[in-house]
């Protein structure tokens, strides 16, 4: 069964909800794109299962929420939505036909395809976000933020293949803006989730957030999308796809930068994991109690 992830993107003051099919094969895993939560995380006692479930569905992202069967049933959209009883297969089929579904009906809907003219005369074109992964670990999710504070989210990406083919490249998500003309000193902030166990839904011990500020190399007059190339040893290189070759960067490429651990995001992710473990433990207690009650009834 495919993993259906609901992702929230904050971009240019407009909120969008999108469905995507994950290359992973977890029981159920809900991913968000942005690594920072706007509110402090909360830990609840294992006895308060209602609080666990309520917080799981209402808390702000980042949400790496793995686990119980109840997770999907309580997976309300971050931007407002009722519980869905639709089967996962239906959602997976729907996801294939949806690129972007607006999830805040009160907010005005901006065109993601129209160029933007800034006050200084710079013209910027919208570009989708994609990634190529040359590393042996998976990329759970990543985001790009430009100098104007606008962010675009990227899809999760499988590790490099045994033959050296990079993971990713075929999936894109919306959006960032790219100036029509390159200028020296252009930078973007990149955050990504390193996943050491991408094919094991139950082992999240290898999940860690990293961040880096990368310079944007020169590009031509045509801009197709914005690409992040993930390399071994937590290094990355960003580039604007202008139709030229997207080869693996050489080791001494001046635009390759080293990522560092994002302490705040990792602390939040750890709190999510602890809460999920507490929820699992409580579920196990309920199951054991139900089994004892059932056994007692049979014996009577």
The number of distinct β-strands equals 17
Radius of gyration: 21 Å
**What's the helix count?**
4
Structural class: alpha+beta
Q: Outline, from the CA principal axes?
A: elongated
H/E topology pattern: EEEHEHHEEEEEEEEEEEEEH
Largest sheet: 7 strands, mixed
Question: Mean pLDDT, as a whole number?
Answer: 68
Q: Which spans of ≥5 residues are poorly predicted at pLDDT below 50?
A: 1-111
* Share of residues in helices: 10-25%
Task: Report the end-to-end length measured between terminal Cα atoms.
Answer: 41 Å
Classify the beta-strand content into a percent band. 25-35%
Task: Please give a structural write-up.
InterPro entries: DUF3304 (IPR021733). It comes from Burkholderia reimsis. This is DUF3304 domain-containing protein. Residues 146-168 are annotated as: Disordered. The protein has 300 residues and is of the alpha+beta class. Among the domains are: 124-261, no CATH class; 263-299. Helices cover 20% and strands 31% of the residues. It is built from 4 helices and 17 strands. It has helices at 49-58, 70-73, 88-97, 263-299; strands spanning 3-11, 14-22, 29-30, 65-66, 101-102, 116-117, 123-133, 138-145, 151-154, 167-168, 173-179, 187-195, 208-215, 225-231, 235-241, 257-258, 260-261. The strands form 4 sheets. Strands 6, 7, 10, 11, 14, 15 and 16 form a 7-stranded mixed sheet that branches. A hairpin with a 5-residue loop joins strand 6 and strand 7 (123-133). The longest helix is centred in the C-terminal third of the chain and has 37 residues, at 263-299. The chain is elongated and about 80 Å long.
């Amino acid at each position: 069964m495919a993993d259906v992830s609901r992702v929230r993107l904050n971009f240019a003051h407009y909120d969008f909800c999108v469905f995507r099919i994950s290359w992973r094969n977890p029981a159920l895993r809900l991913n968000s794109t942005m690594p920072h939560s706007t509110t402090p995380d909360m830990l609840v006692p294992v006895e308060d299962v209602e609080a666990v479930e309520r917080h799981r569905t209402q808390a702000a992202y980042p949400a790496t929420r793995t686990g119980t069967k109840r997770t999907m049933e309580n997976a309300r959209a971050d931007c407002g939505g009722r519980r869905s009883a639709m089967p996962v297969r239906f959602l997976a089929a729907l996801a294939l036909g949806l690129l972007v579904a607006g999830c805040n009906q009160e907010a005005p809907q901006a065109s993601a395809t129209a160029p933007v003219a800034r006050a200084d005369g710079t013209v910027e074109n919208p570009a989708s976000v994609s990634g190529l992964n040359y590393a042996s670990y998976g990329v759970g999710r990543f985001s790009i933020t430009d100098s104007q504070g606008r962010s675009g989210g990227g899809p999760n990406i499988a590790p490099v293949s045994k033959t050296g083919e990079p993971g990713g490249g075929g999936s894109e998500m919306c959006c960032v803006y790219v100036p029509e003309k390159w200028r020296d000193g252009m930078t973007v902030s990149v955050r990504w989730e390193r996943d050491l166990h991408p094919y094991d839904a139950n082992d999240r011990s290898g999940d860690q957030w990293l961040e880096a500020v990368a310079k944007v190399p020169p590009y031509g007059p045509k801009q197709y999308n914005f690409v992040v190339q993930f390399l071994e040893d937590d290094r990355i290189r960003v580039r604007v796809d202008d139709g030229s070759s997207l080869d693996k960067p050489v080791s001494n490429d001046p635009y390759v930068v080293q990522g560092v651990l994002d302490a705040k995001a990792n602390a939040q992710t750890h709190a999510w994991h602890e809460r999920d473990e507490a929820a699992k433990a409580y579920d196990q207690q309920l199951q054991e109690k139900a089994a004892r009650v059932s056994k007692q009834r049979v014996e009577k």
